[in-house]
Amino acid sequence: MNQKVKLTLVALVCVWAGLTICTEANPTAQPPQSQTKGEVERLTLPDYRQWTHVKSMVIFDETHPLYKSFGGMHHIYVNAKGLKASQAGGPYPDGSTLVFVLYEAVNEDGAYVAGKKKVEAIMVKDRHRFAETGGWGFQAFDPQTHQPLIKQADVTSACYNCHASVKDRDYVFSRFVN
Ligand code: HEC
Predict the structure, then answer these.
(1) What is the mean pLDDT of the chain?
(2) Around Cβ 147, how many Cβ atoms within 10 Å?
(3) Is ligand 1 within 6 A of the CB of residue 119?
(4) Which residues contact 114 (CB under 8 A, 6 or more apart)?
(5) pLDDT at position 37
(6) Ligand 1 centroid from CA 36, angstroms
(7) For the residues of 138-165, what is the DSSP string, one character each?
(8) Among the atoms of ligand 1, which is closest to the Cα of residue 165?
(9) Phi, then psi, of 73 in degrees rounded to 5
(10) What is residue 12's predicted lDDT score, i.e. its pLDDT?
(11) Which residues pair with 47 in a beta bridge?
(12) Residue 101 in contact with ligand 1 by CB distance below 6 A
């Protein structure tokens, strides 16, 4: 008897949930998405692990101004095209690419080790494609899906404005560590 009541309840819930899903999935309720992608939305994550290491840093304390957005352990890499410029502090030729990869900094018995990957960010130099943002295309990727996270409309406020503070070094903060 009890089992029967339970089964009926489950069936009722399923019908209700099904109806709700049907209503939410109604295609006419959603306006059609724009098919036009901005240039930075076309950027893909390069295979950077064989590139040259520029520097690393651990932001471990909330007193650091970048703790909220970049707290953790990060490494910076540069491709072959950008290597000389990285060593010289800029300017970078077209085709130069820098990668910033951020991991959680895990305190393991007094040593900071890399934990989960949090984000991968890139800067790609192309003075024509990215003329509006100092000649650099900025993009960040979800570490699991590798999908781009930054929309064209947001790149100035999300990335460029802060990097513009080092315009004299071609918008690149990192100094090459020998
Ligand atoms: C609030 C300031 C700020 C914002 C916003 C910011 N960055 Fe940066 N970024 C930095 C700093 C500071 C470094 C250098 C870190 C270091 O010294 O190790 C850096 C480093 C980088 C690097 C390595 C090259 C370099 O300049 O040193 C890349 C690539 C990068 N950022 C991409 C991005 C992208 C993409 C975005 C937007 C999603 C972004 N950044 C947003 C401050 C910022």
Answers:
(1) 87
(2) 9
(3) no
(4) 73, 103, 104, 105, 106
(5) 78
(6) 27
(7) EEEE-TTT--B---GGGHIIIIIHHHGG
(8) 2
(9) -105, 125
(10) 42
(11) none
(12) no
